[in-house]
Amino acid sequence: MVWVPRVDEIPLSIAFLDNNIIYFLFKVKGLGTETLSKMCKGEIVGLKGPLGRGFIVEDYTKSVLVIAGGIGIAPIPFFIYRSKYKKLDVVWGVKRREELFDLNIFNQDIGDRYRLFMATEDCSYGFCGTALERLKNIPLEDYDIILAVGPQPMLKGVCEYIRNTNLEAYVALETMVKCGIGLCGSCFIRSSNKLLCIDGPVFRCDEVIQHLGKTNNSKNI
Length: 221
Ligand SMILES: Cc1cc2nc3c(=O)[nH]c(=O)nc-3n(C[C@H](O)[C@H](O)[C@H](O)COP(=O)(O)OP(=O)(O)OC[C@H]3O[C@@H](n4cnc5c(N)ncnc54)[C@H](O)[C@@H]3O)c2cc1C
Ligand code: FES
Prior knowledge:
The protein has helices spanning 31-37, 76-82, 131-135, 152-162, 196-199, 205-214; strands spanning 2-4, 8-10, 16-18, 21-23, 46-47, 58-69, 84-94, 115-120, 127-128, 145-149, 168-172, 188-189, 194-195, 202-204. By secondary structure, the chain is an alpha/beta fold.
């Protein structure tokens, strides 16, 4: 949780950690992210964390496919850096080419740890279509685990698409997060009786498929 003094406290993923520097990648949405984007060197923010449960990052026997939509890519550079898998492929879909950037910006050495498949909805770069459509063009028998991060309709689409396969599938959900430490209940996921800030944000598809089906809105309340 990033506390922006006099404005708000907002949940952000860790995009990278390098010695004593924490990097965030975020999209300006409302007042909190806008204020954060305008802050200058020397100004103070508060940090609370790390909180919740993230992706499993280590299993030498498994091949993993990550599906990221838009700014859902935020935690992926650090995930790539930490992950130890037999094979790691990443599908990243955005609306326009201008939203893409080099995933190795924090550490060039991670470049040989993964393969990247890009997709743009306006067809300006890579595959022409959404991340989900790109996923549907990839042979899934090459993988053991699917991880999805991005907008809720994409997460729902991924979970439904792999439902009848033997793949392990996980999604990073978004709900309204207030306290971040299990006290306020604002991140409660009704269909599963879980709290996003304690039990998630990463869940198995079968734990949250009902929740994903109920609403297209990323906010829970
Ligand atoms: C676990 C988690 C990790 C996230 N990681 C990232 C990231 O790395 N990069 C990124 O760009 N975005 C991320 N988000 C979404 C980000 O938290 C929201 O975009 C941000 O809180 C919006 O705040 P705002 O004040 O700019 O906008 P406003 O819309 O004005 O937000 C008002 C309030 O609503 C809450 N809120 C609004 N949207 C969301 C949302 N989608 N999820 C949770 N709370 C919300 C905020 O806490 C804030 O208090 C993450 C969300 C979650 C739940
Ligand atoms: S945000 Fe308060 S309980 Fe999860």
